[in-house]
Amino acid sequence: MRFHRTTTLAMAAVLSFGLLAACDSSDPEEPGASGDPTGAATDEAVTIRVAGLLPTADDAAKQQLDERVAAFEEQYPNITVEPEDYQWLNSTFTTALAGGTLPNVFEIPLTDGKTLIQQGQLADIDSYVKALPYGDDFNEKLLENGMDDSGTIFAVPAKSIYAVALHYNRNLFEQAGLDPDDPPTTWDEVRADAKKIHDETGIAGYATMALDASGGWQLAAGANSRGGVIEKNEGGKYIATLTDPAIKAHLQFLQDLKKDGSLLARADLGWGEINAAFGGGELAMYTSGSDVYNALVEGNGVTADWGYGLTAIPTEDGGGALAGGTLAAVTKDSTEAQKDAAVKWIDWWYLSKLQDKDQAIADASTRAGANPPQAVGTPVLPIFSEELYKENLEWIKDYINVPLENMTGYTDVMFEQDLVPEAAVATQDLYNALFPVVQAVITDDNADIDALLSTANEVGQTAIDAAS
Predict the structure, then answer these.
(1) How many domains does the chain have?
(2) Among residues 367, 393, 411, which one ends one of the domains?
(3) Which residue range is the domain that position 45 belongs to?
(4) SS3 of 153, please?
């Protein structure tokens, strides 16, 4: 078994894009092969450290990664790949970046790309990316998150391109006498179903992330779904809008759930913690990225017959689903040979399986053949075009093992639903200003929402001004 060193990093999440289908992909060249813009760098023996799996990933997921690494090293015998366990955490990422402890290939939220580029923290990988057979075929609105103002590429959209959605436990719905094939489509229905589930089963009907930036992220998602935003651009000046009525409405929703007795009122639930609680059967519904099923399978014991359900986040008053995802980037101190190898790995691990039939099948068969099997076919928004995404699913149809029949509430609308971009400036600071409000509301029956949001807005505006 290949050794996976743990790198303590960062999770939060989101992006700034309006989904735009890219042009159709051209026929790919040799599977997994990126271009060779530097010539000599290609044959030089080189070692790269790369972001691997979450620290909670099980042995099957690690085996699947090891097999892909072995195949890559067979394709490129001059490159040695050293995977590291990796989780992007807002609280520690800056220190790891400044201290030079990141792997050569690392992952960041889409929204952080522009800031890190402006700070000179990412390697220029433009020539290597453009030399890829599909270098011109990215969804342009996604790729912009990894480019500077001149169009130079420093990072590429890599995985987990999602819209926030509602995840639910179908078994708990059935036990409460609810139809799991008819999940809630409004927030009022979510509240009613949560109460019924709690009353009938004794298990919390709903939970929300509340820990650190993830708590602010999901509050923003709730506000976006109700037609609100956490930041506005007024004449070129960014203004914090943390007192937006939609934010208050979602906090009131959480407070109402608590009064109903149906909320899992834990202030220590971050992204990983809420996944674990859901996988452990402690709650019936929560919101997170639409792709989270992969993590639930890899780290929380969820299987195709577990009873997982996925549906679109409820929307009202012109609201939409907050969208997000992950960029793959390369450390700025990487050598040219390492940058060349890094982009080859990014191509191999993240992207070629989306473009090339043989690579798609190889990846899907390895994941499906792991013990236990890893998720194949989890719904994500396309890094390239909608047409190519659907073609990819056709390529791997024999290996798809996710319960797509239980995800139609999301997949039926995923290409048509309105998407909301993340705040453009001081995103993580705004989330960090909001999560204490979430914690107060779900733990204190007498929390003053207006006063809490007023204070948070002042903190948020200060952060915006400092970042502008």
Answers:
(1) 2
(2) 411
(3) 5-161+324-411
(4) strand
